[in-house]
Amino acid sequence: MADDCFLLEIDDLHKSFGDLEVLKGINLRVRPGEVIILIGPSGSGKSTFLRCINRLEEPTRGRIRVDGTEIMARGVDLNRVRKDIGIVFQAFNLYPHLTALGNVTLALRKVLRMSRQDAEACGRRMLEHVGLAEKANAYPSELSGGQQQRVAIARALALEPKLMLFDEPTSALDPELVGSVLKVMRDLRDEGMTMVVVTHEMSFARDAGDRVLFMDGGEIVEEGPPSTIFRNPAHQRTREFLQRVLHV
Amino acid sequence: MRGLGDTFFNLQVIEKYLPALLSGFRVTLALAGAVVTLGILLGLTLAMVRAFRFRVVNWLIVAFVDLFRTLPQLVVLVFAYFGLPYAGITISGFTAATLGLGLVLAAFAEEAFWAAITAIPRGQWEAARSTGLSFAQALGSVVMPQAVRIAIPLLTNRTIAITKGTALASVIAVPEILDKAQSAMSLSSNASPLIIGAGLYLAIFAPFVLFSRWLERRFGWII
Questions:
Q1: So what's the pLDDT on residue B223?
Q2: B123 touches chain A (CB under 8 A)
Q3: What is the mean pLDDT of residues B93-118?
Q4: So what's the pLDDT on residue B10?
Q5: What share of chain A is helix, strand, coil (3-state, %, to 5)?
Q6: Which residues in chain A touch residue B142, judged by CB atoms under 8 angstroms apart?
């Protein structure tokens, strides 16, 4: 079956907030290990689209399949589905009352029902993976933005998701801290993680993306390999957007 | 004319009525403990139930909260003690006072916890739910630990104010400090028992106030 070679399939996805149609029929196929970059002006629906993939936003209609599971189907166990889809937010959203290790282990204990000991062993591995082994006992308020975002990545990775979503993961960071987060994301890509990334980091899009999607006005205007999109975009809207972001 | 010392610090009177006042002290302490326990736990429970947003249940919670925030505490106590027997429900003064003040505290505590729950940023819920936690798990493990800390400064003042209302229970024949002090005062025609009574209230509520200050310092961080 053709479906078998896609990890994520999205058909005709619509989302409206009241009268405002934010997504006007999005279609997307993602293969395992692919890195998809979503770019576009603010308000184009990129974040809403990303957040529909794990139903943090409820799509108005459409079809989403993650690794063969219809996640829009009635009676689907959403908590199970979400365990397989990691998401990293612009604002980190770490739990301020828990340490870095506590942040990473919470879902391991509550969702996967691991013992404290096993969860902490796994949590420490994950923190080591993002270069923060020595910060296990630090609270979020004691960490820099870049460190907080890496803890957030570790928290999502701990559940061994099949797919990772990144919603402008570096937009809230000071410029000198962006690199550390992008490095973790590049490592992930090299390990074969399937990723959908909303970002304004065009250099990352260019060298880490397998495919770039340009969104505007709630639709995908154009898509293709980074080399094509960045050097030779087909659409006027894409050209204008790239000119604005690349020549500031 | 007798001196002030004789009127307010008469050692003979004090010696005679001290045991009665101390028994009142124990009753006030027990009543305060019962009121705080019932009020805080019920308020916390109601706020958590409200978070699930079952429409009819929430109407009931809001109605309960608004009713008990509105009624004067004394009215609630008098109703519980003198009113309920007409409905065939007779409860002791102690139970009536615990229920009356406890429900009033629960109403205010619910509002404090609820305000704190709604103050938790949406991103906290989203982070929790996106890792597969159920609504109840997100509420219990992520939202409430933060909400309780936010609620503490809102709660401590109100808890002290309502718990001091245990003195109102003297009206419904609860043998607490004020009740004992008043009868001792009329029997001895001397105000000393009242002074001792005031001292006993201080002995209960001063530590209470200090404890609440410590709580606010310990947990009163801002996110």
A1: 43
A2: yes
A3: 96
A4: 87
A5: 40, 25, 35
A6: 95, 106
Question: 């709660």: which residue's tokens?
Answer: B155
User: What's the rounded mean pLDDT across residues A114-118?
Assistant: 97
Q: What is the ipTM of this complex?
A: 0.93
DSSP-assigned letter for residue B82: I
Q: Given an 8 Å threshold on Cβ–Cβ distance, is B130 in contact with A111? A: no
The alpha-carbon radius of gyration of chain A (Å, integer) is: 18
Q: Is B119 on the interface with A (CB under 8 A)?
A: no
What DSSP letter does each residue of B149-207 carry, written as one string?
HHHHHHHHHHHHHHHHGGGGGGGGT--SHHHHHHHHHHHHT-SHHHHHHHHHHHHHHHH
Using the predicted structure, report yes or no on whether residue A231 has a pLDDT greater than 80: yes
Minimum-distance CB partner of B123 among A83, A86, A89: A89
B-facing residues of A in 159-188 (CB < 8 A) are 159
Are A83 and B132 within 8 A, CB to CB? Answer: yes
Check: CB of residue A120 under 8 Å from CB of residue A154: no
Averaged confidence pLDDT in chain B: 92
Question: Cα separation of A125 and A110, whole Å?
Answer: 18
Tens digit of each residue's pLDDT (9 = 90 or more) over A33-57: 999 999 999 989 999 999 999 999 9
Query: Is pLDDT at B220 greater than 70 in this prediction?
Result: no
Tokens of B201: 């209230």
Q: Are B88 and B108 in contact (CB under 8 A)?
A: no
